[in-house]
Write a structure and sequence with these properties.
alpha/beta; FAD/NAD(P)-binding domain; seven-stranded mixed beta sheet; five-stranded parallel beta sheet; globular; dihydrolipoyl dehydrogenase (NADH) activity; NAD; FAD
Length: about 475
């Protein structure tokens, strides 16, 4: 039986990063992953294979098509009868996924990490070592480890009244693999997946209706930001209904019928495809936690402390399978932190400075507290808001909707939250994250020189606006 210092279960953005960091710190390391894509093992987890990476590829393709058909004329660029080859678009997406997955294998070899494939489960604890069973399509083996890091991620949450077949009833995986644009797409759930994938297919010509159970649109985001995004998505043709109660769903060969209730009125919607994006649940399938007494909470998450330790000695858990936001970058950071804690180091993770992004058009991004949270908590704050409307770089890009909002403590001026909606705010948010990590004030950002012309000038203006000295608005 092979023995390792560290065994990581799961090769997603939490698991493979944890394995690399553990190997860098001198531990003999193995990573076990069971995900198969197109009948082949593929490292990278949900994020790389059927989540973050492929969705961004399709978003970019659909945005290029939308620019060509709607916006390029303003630049003096014209094209007769533009067409979209959806199959080629999907093939490009697959190529990007394959390159990234193969890149992880390369990094494993570079860092002398043992790459194992199959479904891993806890077997026993013998002589202070954890025995892990691996089932590779019927071929079984066992390995042992001093430390185990569980990074098994999450699965799509499905509706109880209808089975997901990824033909007519889709989850994120099915929505990424459509080979033609549906005429009508219904999306249940106005979260990240629903809005991003709804945007993709709307740009390519689908009539998209989004049904959301909550009365609020994007309740986790700042209300002002959510309102601006909602306005722009509606302009782009998405129909968004909130406060919806989903009833019976019928899946016929060519049509899906969704019965729902809105404001006491019973309604019906027929569509070609139905995307179910109602959140995700922790994945402990086949892990066999009961064999070793690994503790789960009532929602199925592995119970960990602030340092990602489980109730078992030398067993750790990170990412979507534990508490906290289900974000790839949160999982990666936890993976690094756990590897360093195993090595006796003392890193930290501040949940309040984890950035959030939704890659719609316009994008939205935020870090820290929303205006509504600060008000509810009785924290006195000042705010500065600056628009992209007159920003020279945004005007040149042809994307000048949106704004940056900065919230700072009224007494100390320390930045408490930054909220953005507009072009490339997924990149701009990092300045706010760095500022908050270093406990910066709005005055600090206001005193920093920002390049001109650049989108980041809007962040600078928002910082100035916190003290009512905005220069360009």
């Amino acid at each position: 039986m092979q023995n390792f210092d560290v065994v990581v279960i799961g090769g997603g953005p939490g698991g493979y990063v944890a394995a690399i960091r553990a190997a860098q710190l001198g531990f003999s390391t193995a990573c076990i992953d069971g995900y198969r894509r197109k009948d082949k093992y593929s490292l990278g987890g949900t994020c790389l294979n059927v989540g973050c990476i492929p969705s961004k590829a399709l978003l970019q393709s659909s945005e290029n098509y939308a620019e060509l058909t709607h916006s390029f004329a303003d630049h003096g660029i014209s094209c007769d009868n533009p067409k979209i080859d959806v199959k080629k678009m999907i093939a490009r997406k697959e190529d990007i996924v394959n390159k990234n997955s193969n890149g992880i294998s390369f990094l494993f070899k570079k860092n002398k990490i043992t790459e194992l494939h199959g479904w891993a489960s806890f077997s026993a604890n013998k002589d202070g070592k954890w025995v892990i069973s691996i089932d590779d399509q019927g071929k079984k083996e066992e390995i042992s480890a001093t430390h185990v890091i569980v990074a098994t991620g999450s699965n799509s949450r499905h509706l109880p009244q209808i089975a997901t077949d990824n033909v007519n009833i889709l989850d994120n995986e099915g929505a990424l693999d459509l080979t033609e644009t549906p005429k009508e797409l219904c999306v249940i759930g106005a979260g990240v997946i629903g809005l991003e994938m709804g945007s993709v297919w709307a740009r390519l010509g689908a009539k998209v209706t989004v049904l959301e159970a909550s009365d609020k649109f994007l309740g986790a985001a700042d209300e002002q930001v959510a309102k601006e995004l909602h306005k722009n998505l509606v302009k782009q043709g998405l129909e968004i209904k909130t406060g919806v109660k989903i009833g019976e769903i019928k899946n016929a060969k060519k049509k899906v019928t969704v019965n729902y209730e809105l404001g006491g009125e019973k309604l019906k919607l027929e569509c070609d495809k139905l995307l179910v994006s109602i959140g995700r649940i922790p994945n402990t399938n086949g892990l066999n936690p009961e064999a070793v007494g690994l503790k789960l909470d009532e929602r199925g998450f592995i119970v960990v402390d602030a340092d990602c330790r489980t109730n078992l000695p030398n067993v750790w858990a990170i990412g979507d399978v534990v508490r906290g936001p289900m974000l790839a970058h949160k999982a990666s950071d936890e993976g690094i932190i756990v590897a360093e804690r195993i090595a006796g180091q003392h890193p930290h993770l501040d949940f309040n400075t984890i950035p959030w992004v939704i890659y719609t058009n316009p994008e939205i991004a935020w870090v820290g507290k929303t205006e509504q949270q600060l008000t509810a908590e009785g924290i006195k704050f000042k705010k500065g808001v600056a628009s992209f409307m007159a920003n020279g770089r945004a005007l040149g890009l042809g994307h000048n909707v949106g704004f940056v909002k900065m919230l700072a403590c009224e007494e100390t001026d320390r930045i408490l939250g930054v909220h953005m909606v507009g072009p490339f705010v997924s990149e701009l948010i990092s300045e706010a994250v760095v500022a908050m990590e270093f406990m910066a004030s709005s005055e600090d950002l206001a005193r920093i020189i920002h390049a001109h012309p650049s989108l980041s000038e809007v962040t600078h203006e928002a910082a100035l606006a916190c003290d009512k000295r905005q220069l360009h608005g």
